Amino acid sequence: MPSSQPSVLPLSQALWQDNQDLAAASLENLFVQGIGDGSLPREKFAYYVGQDAFFLEAFARAYSIAAAKAPTWESFQTFHALANGVLQELNLHQSYAESWNVDVKTVEPGAATRQYTDFLLATAWSQPVGITAVAMSPCMRLYAYLGQELAKGGIPSHDYREWITTYSSDEFEPLAKQLEALVNQLSPDTTLTKSTYRYAMICERDFFQAAWQR
């Protein structure tokens, strides 16, 4: 007889499933839909590019703080590898920004950007490493999800092709999975974990909305 016991999802998957309402809100946001169909006004995307560069610097720092707190050599190496991935993305981002006439060195963070980066860095400094992994995981998983959803009909040929290609790629998905593996290894299944993950998802939704309203 097959077991009637329900399967237990890994923590990272359970958190993602519990926040599908916010994932859908980001996908349905007019900013993201504008990237998908190419209709997004260029000035809105240019603003987003600058804000995202500021965010990625904080994201890289949070990875480095997490690495310093990592309990094992293996997790230390994984956090550092993920941080290096963000640094490479930032270097590409700078040339990308130049094509949109954005000087990332002079970007002033908007309220939604500051809300997100302050939350990430405060979590990285004050919380155990597992909670930091939880705070960072939504960004990676959500972007992989958005990229894959927008690419379902094929990669388009409009101005935002590169964005969709990057986040739907076979190279980006493993990075999201690496971080989720750290969540599964290091994070407790607690109320704080759930609220931290959800707050990061809210920050993601608000980040897109702020760019749309710009």
- The portion of residues assigned to helices is over 70%
CATH-derived architecture: Up-down Bundle
Supply the CATH class: Mainly Alpha
Principal-axes geometry comes out as globular
- The number of distinct β-strands equals 0
- Topology as a string of helices (H) and strands (E): HHHHHHHHHH
Strand content: under 5%
Task: Give the full name of the CATH homologous superfamily.
Answer: Heme oxygenase-like
Q: Briefly note the structural class of the backbone.
A: mainly alpha
Largest sheet, described in full? none
CATH topology: Heme Oxygenase, Chain A
Separation of termini?
59 Å
Number of domains: 1
Low-confidence stretches: none
**Count of separate DSSP helical elements:** 10
Structure, described:
The structure is a single chain. This protein has 214 residues and is mainly alpha-helical. It has a single domain (14-213), classed as Heme oxygenase-like (Heme Oxygenase, Chain A, Up-down Bundle), CATH 1.20.910. Helices cover 77% and strands 0% of the residues. Helix 2 runs parallel beside helix 10, helix 6 runs antiparallel to helix 7 (129-150) and helix 6 (111-126) runs antiparallel to helix 10. The longest helix has 28 residues, at 42-69. 37% of the residues are buried.
